[in-house]
Amino acid sequence: xxxxxxxxxxxxxxxxxxxxxxxxxxxxxxxxxxxxxxxxxxxxxxxxxxxxxxxxxxxxxxxxxxxxxxxxxxxxxxxxxxxxxxxxxxxxxxxxxxxxxxxxxxxxxxxxxxxxxxxxxxxxxxxxxxxxxxxxxxxxxxxxxxxxxxxxxxxxxxxxxxxxxxxxxxxxxxxxxxxxxxxxxxxxxxxxxxxxxxxxxxxxxxxxxxxxxxxxxxxxxxxxxxxxxxxxxxxxxxxxxxxxxxxxxxxxxxxxxxxxxxxxxxxxxxxxxxxxxxxxxxxxxxxxxxxxxxxxxxxxxxxxxxxxxxxxxxxxxxxxxxxxxxxxxxxxxxxxxxxxxxxxxxxxxxxxxxxxxxxxxxxxxxxxxxxxxxxxxxxxxxxxxxxxxxxxxxxxxxxxxxxxxxxxxxxxx
Length: 413
Fold this sequence. Notes:
Elements: H1 15-21, H2 45-55, E1 67-71, H3 77-95, E2 99-105, H4 112-123, H5 134-148, E3 151-157, H6 165-178, E4 183-190, H7 201-207, E5 210-214, H8 219-233, H9 241-254, H10 258-275, H11 282-303, H12 306-320, E6 324-326, E7 332-334, E8 336-338, H13 339-352, H14 360-372, E9 376-380, E10 390-394, H15 398-412
Parallel strand pairs: 1-4, 1-5, 2-3, 3-4
Antiparallel strand pairs: 6-7, 8-10, 9-10
Helix pairs in contact: 2-3, 4-5, 6-7, 8-9, 8-10, 9-10, 9-11, 10-11, 12-13, 12-15
């Protein structure tokens, strides 16, 4: 009886091994990532100088200035502060100066207690203070500064996301009065241009010792930023000048957001890899725009102030209803609503979430900003409508925006 031969299956190459052998337009993909902070920040030299000067007091063992920095998303606020702090950390380590800094993303730590806990963990990395009372954490932070004669610099990014920010700022300001040595300095960063106006006067005076506004980048500046990134991120001659010009122009039209421009180029490179064309041109950038637009919009929504999120939530809710605007000829245009009914829907949502309501003046301001961001379309009611009002329509998929806002609002309440 003959032996049964064992069938030998051909060895299949690991799918990740296959990825390594594929051609790519990228030289270093991380450099064209929105999270990458370059060594040099073009067109932010003035701002770097101002922050450096404000923090320079630590060289003479004195308390630096508090800063309040605001501007739209993608204007280089966080990158500038992180760049200066990296330089400061290098400077103080070489001279053995008692200076410690801590970066806090306030969206992830949206309360006084969470901010103080995050700071304390960075200064005592070997210890865990979770579960201790807020007063203990606060006193421990002060004792660290006192015992080490240390100047502590707390960077609170998206500071407007902190629910009890007035209480936090008051405590830290009072803490400086209690310290016999060392100090606590705050650098507040916000995408909300009007956030400062809502602060308690005491908070405003303590936080806003020095203020800076970061203006959006224009198309020429974005083109220069992209060119420098692309030279290092992509292989030589794989990116056409037209691709960079188009990505810069599209980002400038949206809001002057450098992150949008970078995302467009990264996605265009990924499309070139999938097509195996090895060239990133303006056609790839156009395709990239369609694929990243939703990601950009949802990212933008997460950075909006809480009250503005409620206004947009009211618009998305009404857009999903059987609601519409009846024209003079009797036709109904779905998804179109009056600003007055949006304000009423907003008031109901504010009551539901138990937050104070904004005035009609602030409501109009938020509507204008949402239109500027391209999230909504606004037109005058015109003839055939009693009175003069504005007609508003959501610029993107109402269901996706409503879902994204619900996630953000649930985090806050």
